[in-house]
Amino acid sequence: MPSEFDIIRRYFTRPVKRALLGVGDDCALMAIQAGMVMAVSTDMLVEDRHFFSGADAALLGHKALAVNLSDLAAMGAAPRYATLALALPDADEGWLAQFAQGFFTLADAFGVELVGGDTTRGPRNISITVMGEVPPELALRRDGAKAGDDVWVSGCTGDAALGLAHLAGRVRLEDAALAYCLARLHAPSPRVALGLALRGLASGAIDVSDGLAADVGHIGERSGLAVELRYADLPRSPALMACADDQLVRECLLAGGDDYELAFTAAPDARARVAALAGVAGLLLTRVGSVSIGEARQVCVRDADGKTMKIDSKGFDHFGS
Amino acid sequence: MPSEFDIIRRYFTRPVKRALLGVGDDCALMAIQAGMVMAVSTDMLVEDRHFFSGADAALLGHKALAVNLSDLAAMGAAPRYATLALALPDADEGWLAQFAQGFFTLADAFGVELVGGDTTRGPRNISITVMGEVPPELALRRDGAKAGDDVWVSGCTGDAALGLAHLAGRVRLEDAALAYCLARLHAPSPRVALGLALRGLASGAIDVSDGLAADVGHIGERSGLAVELRYADLPRSPALMACADDQLVRECLLAGGDDYELAFTAAPDARARVAALAGVAGLLLTRVGSVSIGEARQVCVRDADGKTMKIDSKGFDHFGS
């Protein structure tokens, strides 16, 4: 059986180029480019909570990093470094090799260097901290939205939740739709290029991980503004459009979670520039609502007739029922 | 029951002064002082592995941060920021309040700002990433030792392990000795001031967390040098000196782990300056060995007669037997 040190050496030690010092010392060392600040985010994924026991290790390596890169994207930061803390029930080398392959394939795609971490025995748990760089005046903070701004969303929300609904037996998807939804669930693509392109253009941004309504609500809260979403304008994937269960569609679109799209606000006079980004980023960008002076607490979702719709969920809460 | 967001708001959201943006956005933002680089380290503590189920929550909050600050100390970095990812079986507010109190008391003592994190349900797991600043040319790397350098250690090693040996029924300590050893085990003091004072003085450094022999061995490995320790010169606390079990004493001193002292190398002409630091840092600093040209693999421990002693353990390995 490999030791903790063997595991780190075999699977998680890679030469670094940008960092001054990577894995193998008490700390990693990294400089920051002039004019930039460090953006840092941490996410923890727990077995049986965020992923199924027996989940594909390569996909898990991808997703664990992807959800963190999504946070950097939502800040408009360029990904640079990551640390990985890993608790494992045993030193299964097949699992480790696959996990590392999924992790590093995504890391390499975004130029992310693994600079440190920790490996220990315990119930399976993956905790990643990512670091990126952003000019502070261009960071896409949640508190920057202005009254009158549009609300935009990238891609489509609800697909990962629809895939989960299929797995839970609540809906039966066609094969192609299922494959699409499970890819969205297990292998999300962090919207890094979009986040970088939105520097200086978006007034506020967040990544959609807990459900669209809850997450745009956080922009409202932090900016002290009311948020309104137009339900009919929300983009829907073909898989979701084919679903006949209107209640489920609504839940998926507004409260599904695990979307890893960006929701952001921008001034109305930026509409043409935002729309032009869709081509650059190769992503659907849809104007779905607006922010205005008013009560920041609850996001208002209006149907096609302008009537307020009832939202059933406030977003995913790990300590909720 | 409090929600995930309530928990973060109530227990883990504090105003930040140094950071540009703290808890509550997709990322935290922080600048680095001119001439400095960021030093980063991550540690994960797992219930029933690193701490007992039912362990005092305030002590756990202290220790989880302390073991990370010890890594910054070993790099000569000034502690600045931390992120905290926490998996908990339930949202026990009494536990959370105590954990936060232990964490923030130590954080405040070292000027560390909590800038981000994640809270989720799961088997209890604490993963902390700390960030500090250090001028890159003064960082205390493991690979900087030079042939002929002395090996030094701060404080005493073996006390935490002696406390554990008592808990395991292997030895019976007097009350005062037990209290001392358990304080060393549960509430280690990271040697931050010493690490800062060693900038420009130590050629290599490591924090002693897995056992003195194994950890100074890492300096040897990374520096490509042989390391020799003089057993008779190793500092011993009164608690350890009172222990009649020579075999246990040897294990504790050389391979105990959980010491969170600094082991470091320095040139012989720095002896007076290092010795003078003991007063400043309020810490015993003892010269316990030397490094020389030779096989880096195995640390050689010599007894009072100059004979090589057999070392029983290679340091703590989380996947070892």
Explain this structure.
Two copies of one chain form a homodimer. Chain A is α+β, with helices and mostly antiparallel strands. Chain A folds into two domains: 4-137, PurM-like, N-terminal domain (60s Ribosomal Protein L30, Chain: A); 140-309, PurM-like C-terminal domain (Phosphoribosyl-aminoimidazole Synthetase, Chain A, domain 2, Alpha-Beta Complex). Helices cover 34% and strands 25% of the residues of chain A. The first copy, chain A, has helices at 4-12, 57-74, 93-109, 159-167, 175-186, 192-197, 212-223, 238-241, 246-255, 271-281; strands at 28-30, 37-46, 78-88, 113-121, 125-134, 150-154, 202-208, 226-230, 261-266, 285-292, 300-302, 308-309. In chain A, the strands form two sheets. In chain A, strands 7-9-6-10-8-11-12 form a seven-stranded mixed sheet. Chain A has a four-stranded mixed sheet with strand order 2-5-3-4. In chain A, strand 3 (78-88), helix 3 and strand 4 form a beta-alpha-beta unit. In chain A, helix 4 crosses helix 9. The longest helix of chain A has 18 residues, at 57-74. In chain A, 55% of the residues are buried. The mean pLDDT of chain A is 93. Chains A and B meet through helix 1, strand 1, strand 2, helix 2 and strand 3 of A and helix 1, strand 1, strand 2, helix 2 and strand 3 of B. Strand 1 of chain A pairs antiparallel with strand 2 (37-46) of chain B, so a sheet runs across the interface.
Itemize the secondary structure elements and their pairings:
The structure is a homodimer of 321-residue chains.
Chain A lengths: L3 H9 L15 E3 L6 E10 L10 H18 L3 E11 L4 H17 L3 E9 L3 E10 L15 E5 L4 H9 L7 H12 L5 H6 L4 E7 L3 H12 L2 E5 L7 H4 L4 H10 L5 E6 L4 H11 L3 E8 L7 E3 L5 E2 L12
Helix pairs in contact in A: 2-3, 4-5, 4-9
